[in-house]
Every structure is written in C-alpha cells, then in structure tokens.
Design goal:
single chain; 299 residues; alpha/beta; Rossmann fold; N-(1-d-carboxylethyl)-l-norvaline Dehydrogenase, domain 2; 2 domains; 10-stranded mixed β-sheet; 10 strands; globular
C-alpha cells in the first residue's frame, strides 16, 4: 500500500513522517524550499511525543513524476484544495482513494467533485504542527488525533496503519458530524485568537475574551444545527473544555499564517459561518466581527 502525502506542511509532514517511520510506504509532494531541503536532508519532526528523523525520503515537486499511489492524503490549505484534488486524481491508481485532512467542512466536496464520492473519504485531524524550518516539523502539545470515515478496503487499511504509527486514531460512522465537531472548535479559536492576536491560553483565561469565544462557539453550533447536524446538548461545554486543555501557548494555524505573512483559510472558517448564517437567516454577529478582522489578510 503506497501512501502519497499531498502537501508537506505541518499536518502532512507530521503524519507522513510517522507513517513512514512505522513501516508504511510513503512518498511526499512538496514545493520550493521544503522540497529542496527534504531532498537533501530527509525529514525531521520535533515532538514531545518523540522525535522522528527520516534520513532519506521519497519526495517530488512535480506530481507527474511521482509513482501511482493507493491512498492520497490531501493535507494542503483549503485555498489549494481544488488543485490538490486534481493532483490526487493524477497520481492515484484506478481503485485508489483520497482522504481529505483539511480544516473546515468543505474538504471532501473538493475531492468528490473530481474523484467521485466512492473514492473520496472524509478525514479530520486534531494537532498543532507547523514547518519550523525547511524539512523540520514542530509538533506542539500531545494531540495527534486522526479521524477517518469508516469504510472497508483501503480506508480500513489506512486506519490500521495509523494505529501502528501510534496515532490516536478513530473510525467515524457519520462524516458530516465528524467535520462539524472540529469546525465548531476551529472556527471559534481561530476567530478569537485573530481578534486579539494572542495564544489560546490568554484568550481562554481572560473573562472578556472567553465570553467572545463562547459566543463564537454558540453561533457556529446554531448554524450547524440549522444545517441538520445533530450535536449533543453538551457540545458547547465540551468544546470549551477541550480548549482549556490545550497548551497555554497554543496558536491556531490561522493566526500562525497571519504572523508569517502567508495566505489564510479564513473564507472557509469564520467566513463560511457568516455566509451560511445569511443563507439560513441566522444572525452571526461574533463571527461577523472575526470575519471583518481578517479581511486585510484575505488574498
């Protein structure tokens, strides 16, 4: 079983490196400095869960030169998801599958439009990882959760490979609920951290910002419920409890991207809640503010 990592940033680098370390046959698609450094140095992961050093990795900048894969993990940012879907299609075997590991709720749709629903598998990760320097991934905290839609065949083989790699891996029956459970956490932490340009520890411990955070959660849950997502009654409390358990210095990827001058995924986060709220007739004033605050960074 050959696994292609499409997008070797924090998520792709961390999960790909650990899958390779555990014996899976993995190759990477990377660009620019990351590609050049990985060709020369391999790939390194710095993590409290244990460092990983791959002295040599199979990496390609041009996907047309890559071998055929059984599974492609789409790990790019959402603004590159459509292009990544085409890359997945070009490198997969005829019976291969692609797994979306993007933030937001729209990742699987990009794959389905290109590959069809039968070859598109929903996935979700909970992790704080980023490219600290070319060919070096920094993993913050202990989270290394890997959720995947429960299916037979290759999806099940990937799940078992994730267990072997040591991930906190789970098979999920309801892919829509899977995506929304992450979305109702990611949108509020991204919005609140960007509003004050601070870590989540500061946001969660400040009473004024915590009220903002809670209202961002409640708005996002209301929008999801209106879309037919069946949350548990305790979802808001569970989201806040999970946020409280994060390291004080934890920063969502949206804030890290802003600090590093990179493109941002905000249109698919707070922007998506705002657009859905308008479509469904649900006021989203807190998400409106978060969406407005990030406008100057949207490219």
């Amino acid at each position: 079983m050959r696994i292609a990592i499409v997008g070797t940033g924090g998520v792709g680098g961390y999960y790909g490196a650990n899958l390779a370390r555990s014996g899976a046959e993995v190759f990477f698609i990377a660009r620019g400095q990351q590609y050049a450094a990985m060709r020369e140095q391999g790939l390194r992961v710095e993590s409290e869960a244990g460092p990983v050093k791959l002295e040599k990795v199979e990496v390609y900048e041009d996907p047309t030169l890559a071998p055929k894969a059984d599974i492609a993990l789409s790990c790019v940012k959402l603004y590159d998801a459509e292009a990544a879907a085409q890359i997945c299609k070009s490198m997969l075997k005829t019976d291969g599958i692609a797994v979306s590991l993007q933030n937001g709720i729209d990742g699987p749709a990009f794959l389905s439009e290109v590959l069809g629903a039968d070859r598109s598998v929903a996935g979700s990760v909970i992790i704080s990882a980023f490219v600290e320097s070319p060919a070096c991934i920094k993993h913050v905290g202990s989270n290394q959760v890997f959720h995947i839609e429960k299916r037979s065949g290759l999806a099940d083989e990937l799940f078992r490979a994730c267990i072997k790699a040591g991930f906190d891996a789970h098979q999920i029956e309801d892919p829509e609920l899977l995506l929304w459970k992450k979305f109702v956490r990611l949108v509020p932490i991204s919005g609140a951290s960007v509003l004050c340009r601070s870590s989540m520890g500061f946001v969660a411990s400040n009473p004024h910002l915590r009220r903002v955070l809670e209202n961002l959660v409640r708005e996002t849950v209301r929008v999801g419920s209106a879309k037919g997502v069946e949350f548990q009654d305790s979802v808001v409390e569970e989201v806040l409890e999970r946020i409280d358990k994060a390291p004080y210095e934890f920063k969502p990827s949206l804030l890290l991207d802003i600090e590093r001058g990179r493109k941002v995924e905000a249109p698919w986060l707070s922007g998506r809640v705002v657009s859905l709220g308008r479509e469904l007739g649900i006021p989203t004033p807190y998400n409106d503010c978060a969406w407005a605050a990030v406008q100057r960074f949207v490219q």
